[in-house]
Automatic annotation (TrEMBL):
The lineage of its organism: Bacteria, Pseudomonadati, Pseudomonadota, Betaproteobacteria, Burkholderiales. It comes from the Bacteria. It comes from Caballeronia cordobensis (Burkholderia cordobensis). Keywords: DNA-binding, Phosphoprotein, Transcription, Transcription regulation. This is Response regulator protein. Pfam families: GerE, Response_reg. PROSITE patterns: HTH_LUXR_1, HTH_LUXR_2, RESPONSE_REGULATORY. Residues 147-212 form the HTH luxR-type domain. Gene3D superfamilies: 3.40.50.2300. Residues 4-120 form the Response regulatory domain. The modification 4-aspartylphosphate is found at residue 55. InterPro entries: CheY-like_superfamily, NreC/VraR/RcsB-like_REC, Sig_transdc_resp-reg_C-effctor, Sig_transdc_resp-reg_receiver, Tscrpt_reg_LuxR_C, WalR-like. PANTHER family: NITRATE_NITRITE RESPONSE REGULATOR PROTEIN NARP, TWO-COMPONENT RESPONSE REGULATOR.
Amino acid sequence: MTIRILLIDDHALFRSGVHALLQRQSDFEVVGEAADGLEGLKRAKQFRPDVILLDLNMPGLSGLETLKLLVQDVPQTVVVMLTVSEDLDELSLALREGACGYLLKSIEAETLASAIRKAAAGHPVIADDMTAKLVMSMRTPKPAPAPAPAADPLTTRERDIMRELAHGASNKEIARSLMLAESTVKIHVRNILRKLNLTSRVQVAIYAVGHDTARTTETT
């Protein structure tokens, strides 16, 4: 049986690479590609694929927003997230919204092919690294909350990035300064906005200044 696959990812080079890899499998057929969520939803309705590989972080309609619409409009199609994000919260959200799997873009070609076959058969597929993180997070006892006026929801890396945002740095400049991939910075910025319930980089900068975060590096 041929497994019909749709790719939704805003990076054209990555899409073409995955497309070429999957086409080497005799039981796979890549029926279409889309560069954003809205186009992906249109292609999904048009082609009714067996499996959709969906990026998590895309401009416009996000991966999670696209996932909700796909589950609603093409419920017979299996959706597997294929992303660089190793955030456990995003893994949990994706699974709760109806994703059948959560794979990382660092995956080997043979492992990806195997995961697609399992997903098409109705089996959940989660990256081994993410499964290990999930298990460890459940095993590790949570420390008692310290008597503080307010808990800081940000990680050390997210605070580093927030300080850079407070100084007006772009994603590219932050990536260069902290020696990170620009795509990783993009994910961290999105997480900062979500955790602080903010909607823009300007609000993050104001928050950082208001909480003296922007000066932390200079005074330590």
